[in-house]
Structures are given as C-alpha cells and as structure tokens.
Amino acid sequence: MSVPVIAGLGTAQPPSASQDELWEGFFSRHFSGTTRSLAQRIFANSGVTRRQAAVNPLLEDVSDWPTERRMRRYQVEALPLGKEAVGRALTAAGLSAGDVGLFIVCSCTGYATPGLDILLARDLGMAADTQRMFIGHMGCYAALPGLGAASDFVAARGRPALLLCAELTSLHIQPSSARVDTQQIVSHALFSDAAVAAVVVPGGPGYAVREVTAVTDTSTADHMTWDVTDAGFRMGLSPKVPQVLSRHVRGLVDDLLARHGVDSSEVDGWAVHPGGPRILNVVERELALPPLGLAASRATLDEHGNCSSPTVLLILDRLGRATPAARRIVMLAFGPGLTLYAALLDRQD
C-alpha cells in the first residue's frame, strides 16, 4: 500500500476587515442595551485582529435574510473561492484536475444540489470517473476526517485525492437582539471565511499522513450545535467546551504518539484548531506545550479568525512555510459531538 502524502496546499480568502472596523461599523449597532457592552468586551478579547468575509456586513447586512436567499448566495461566493484554492493546490502538487481520483468537499455553511463537488469537477475539468464525497455539518473538525478518507483512498488505490474545505460563515449572521445571548456574541466575534485545498498523493515529498484518529464524548452532544433555522444557521456554543476538551485531549494525543513510538518532545509543529483563546489555553496546558508551541495557531486566529473546517489546514500551511519548516506535526480539531480529531504527519523530502 502507498504512503499517502500531502503534496500541495492551496488557500483562498475573500477580502478582510479589521475586528475594530467590524465592531465600530456594524456590530456595535447590531447589539443594544446591556448586550452591547458585553459584546464589546467579547470582541476585544477574541484573539482576532483581522478576519475575512465573502459577504462583508460593513457593505451588506444579511442578518434578516431567509435561509433560501443565503443558500443561493453561498453558491455564488463559494464556487470561485473553491476554484482558486483547488487550482493553487494542484499547481503546488504538479498535477492537473484530470489526475484526481477522489474529490472530497467539506462544508457546513451552505448546501445545494448540484453541489460544489459537482460544479467544481465540471469547471476544472475532472474526469467523468472521478469519485466524489461531500462532508457536511461536521463543523470545525471536518478537515481531519476528510483528510483520513483521502489518505485511505490514496493508500488503497494508489491514485491522487483532493480535499477542499470551504466555509462562508459570514452568511449566517443572526438577527439583532437586545436579549443577552453570549453564545451568539462569541460566534459573531470569532468566525471568518476561507477555502483551503489539499492534494494527497501516493508517496513522494511532502507531509506523510501517518494516522488520523478521533474520540467523541456523546454525553456532551448539546455543548456545540449548528441548527438550520429560517434565518440561516445558528451556532450553539457552551462555555463548558474547554472543560470537556481538557478531559480528553491528553489521552487522545498520547495514544496517537505511542502507537508510532513518538514522544511529544519530538513534535515540532502543533496545528491546533483555534476555536477561541480559551480552547488554545486548555490544549497548551493539558499537553504541557512550550511557550511558542501554539504560536502558529494563535497567529492564524489573530489574522484570519475561526474559519471552521479550513482553519486547521491554514495552520498546517503556515507551519509548512516556516523557516525551518516543521518536520513532525500533530493536527487537532474539535467540533460537535463533542468530537476531538487528531492526525500525525511527518515531513519527507
């Protein structure tokens, strides 16, 4: 069986705005009464300086749009963003769209049929026998099961696979309200838009995918939700999420590394999904990471916000472009379930 290797990454992001601009130009009026002062503090302590929006609330307020209108706009915005990310990933891997044996698309922010997988396969010129898979509503951790499926296909078939994570969280701003709803405020303060594609091939230079693993604590299923409503998709985010992660993350990582005879001190790159500053602080503490262990994750949160499923791939891209590039990487992402996913990567030249 072939060793699956990430041979190319491609990123694409819509225009950005500063967190201060978003607050002063839109969200300071979106919240009122006592909610406004709470929201201002949450925005200021979000760990986000800039983030991207395909539908920028400074230019266009979608908060009162019905879900149908938001879904139509999703197709308009996501298609060119996905095409840009896929094109860059294929170029980096030295492949054409016709070489792809399996095309996986992850997204929890928009749905349509035919979907992004079909439309992009058509527009990019993928072969008629290219297999496709759509992964929806897994949220922020979807990139890792997507990477696992791509890697399994490559190992079993010896053909390239392509993974695309594309999210437009900006389409799901909720209607304004004077009622204190901390979960919605946190969501509005953190989330951002992006598309990232990864090409996985049998062998060669790049990051070899050694294993993808997971643990789900179904007793906490209500702690993180993403509900389809008449006004877009609504985030539910319990303040207990960091506490649940603290119970599981060390065991998940220790077991993963032990299976490969690796000590955590031998990991020089940590791509940890920045669900927010508290999430990163908990992971840093539980894994006893060095002071700069999560620098790439914090920098990604600062510059791009939480982009849901593409975020952990943005961090991987940052670690791979560092000087020197990280040699051994642990990827961690979290989402509904509550679910924790982890992957172990080794760089090979």
UniProtKB/TrEMBL annotation:
Gene3D superfamilies per record: 3.40.47.10
Entry similarity comment: Belongs to the thiolase-like superfamily. Chalcone/stilbene synthases family.
GO MF: acyltransferase activity, transferring groups other than amino-acyl groups
Signal peptide (residue range): none
Name of the protein: Type III polyketide synthase
Pfam families: Chal_sti_synt_C, Chal_sti_synt_N
Ranges of residues in domain Chalcone/stilbene synthase C-terminal: 220-345
GO biological process terms held by the UniProt record: polyketide biosynthetic process
Chalcone/stilbene synthase N-terminal domain segment(s): 9-200
Transferase in keyword set: yes
Keyword NAD attached: no
Keywords: Transferase
Active site positions: 140 (acyl-thioester intermediate)
Top-level taxonomy: Bacteria, Bacillati, Actinomycetota, Actinomycetes, Micromonosporales
